[in-house]
């Protein structure tokens, strides 16, 4: 059974379970009057993120996913637990680009977009993965979310004066995992896309923030469909990425704009390194994917 807490990291503390510092009910994120869109939000990591934003008092949460049935189940449960939050569901695939354009232009004020929907392929030796599956994976994990980001940036600035994009990526984007020839590289490609965009758009100049995160390891539907077995990893608490995403959406995280971080890294230990992280001339590629010399 593999555990990812043994990999090198910039913090001493690794949280495989939810911890009090990031409890959404105590978060510095102010959800009043804000709208959050979560793709792939009807189950797994996406549902955890939607639930965390609701717990933090977010006024409106939009869940977009392919399954109307799963959306209905998620909406019913969320509305029962959080009666003061408005929940909207949209049945659509992010790979349907014209449909995504139509949806984004109809939403009005949108403060935070969480790009959680993803596509994978069977975990088999590289030569056994059909090129069509790799092409489909890259379209779903690079082209489709990029299209959504472009549509989001084209919208008027919300009343909050800020737009936040959180990309739910994967450790497979920087850790070489056998059998993931399409999934890992496609995740890495989109992280790199956002790294480039983070130099064009900044919180100070444009009110725009980009973050990419590894959410943790969970036996989700996507993992099961890719052939991951129940004993493959020491599975973690799925609340962690939800709580961490709410923290990123708050006022303490600007220094991580354009960076790739893990939801399990202790936020106070990251904050202690704020000056180092912000000092681009010191190490411009710190917490970013790319060549390290």
Automatic annotation (TrEMBL):
This protein's UniProt keywords? Oxidoreductase
What Gene Ontology molecular function terms does this protein carry? Answer: oxidoreductase activity
Please verify whether the record's keywords include Protein transport: no
Pfam families referenced in this protein's UniProt entry, alphabetically? adh_short
Transferase is among the record's keywords:
no
Family per UniProt?
A: Belongs to the short-chain dehydrogenases/reductases (SDR) family.
Q: What's the protein called, per UniProt?
A: Short-chain dehydrogenase/reductase
Organism for this UniProt entry = Zymoseptoria tritici (strain CBS 115943 / IPO323)
Query: Taxonomically, what lineage is the organism?
Result: Eukaryota, Fungi, Dikarya, Ascomycota, Pezizomycotina
